[in-house]
Structure formats: structure tokens, C-alpha cells
Amino acid sequence: MHPMIDRIGGEAGVQALVTQFYDLIETLPQGAAIMAMHQRGHGLAHARSAQFEFLCGFFGGRRYHSERNGAVSLREIHAHVDIRAQDAEDWLGVMDQAMTDTHVGQPMQTDIMATFRRAAHMLVNVA
């Protein structure tokens, strides 16, 4: 069995997914709150880069994010941001669309989204 990163097209596939995700965040109504969160923080350019680095490792490739930042949990990464359940659902909807748009393919997309769903709802910190 090949690592997931290979099955989604290597680092180029991860970059395409992240690019599409943030392009959708910037244009879809459900991306507005997420875009505002990033603009209050380090900005979208930083978010695009950080998500690429994180997802490479998450998908079984090089762990750029860990190399740069050490071992940091998703909760720590997002602790400075108020995240509502609706924000998690919006993020998931946009990511699901980005995976469809970049041809991640089934059943892998379903498996990835199940993991993302658990992670996204774990980050909710505001009622």
C-alpha cells in the first residue's frame, strides 16, 4: 500500500488541493468566516503555506510543519482562534468541494473527510 500522499499525486497533488481550497475560501459564501479568521491572524498566504506543510505530513509525506515548528497539536495551532461548530462545518464543506475539484477520488475522499470531520469538530472551542 502506497502512502496516501502518493495516491493523491504527491506534493503537487497536495499543493493543488490547498490552492483550490483557499481559492474557494476566498470566493464561496461559506468561506467568509474562515477567511476573516485568517485575515485577523497571519493572513491567507501564511495559511496556504502552513496547510500545505501540515497536509504533506498528514498524508504520509515529508513532515515540513513538524520540521519547522516541532511537534504541535492541531488544538495548539488553532487555540488563538474562536471556532464555532458552523465554522467547522463550513471548513469541511469547502474542503470536500476542493477534493472533488482536484479529483482526489472515492473512496479515499470519504476516508479523508471522516478524519477531517473528527479533527474539525475537536477544534470547536466556542458555543
Quick overview of this protein structure:
With 127 residues, this protein is mainly alpha-helical. Helices cover 70% and strands 0% of the residues.
What does this structure look like?
The chain is mainly alpha-helical and 127 residues long. It has a single domain, classed as Orthogonal Bundle (Globin-like), CATH 1.10.490. The chain has eight helices and no strands. The chain has helices at 4-7, 10-27, 32-40, 44-58, 64-69, 74-78, 85-101, 108-122. The longest helix is centred in the N-terminal third of the chain and has 18 residues, at 10-27. The N and C termini lie far apart (41 Å).
List keywords for this structure.
mainly alpha, 8 helices, Globin-like
Number of folding domains? 1
* Gross CATH architecture: Orthogonal Bundle
Q: What is the first-to-last residue Cα distance?
A: 41 Å
Name the structural class: mainly alpha
CATH uppermost class: Mainly Alpha
The CATH topology label is: Globin-like
Shape: globular
The fraction of residues assigned to DSSP E strands is under 5%
What's the tally of helices?
8
As residue ranges, the low-confidence spans are none
Major beta-sheet overview: none
Write down the secondary-structure element order.
HHHHHHHH
* Helix content range: over 70%
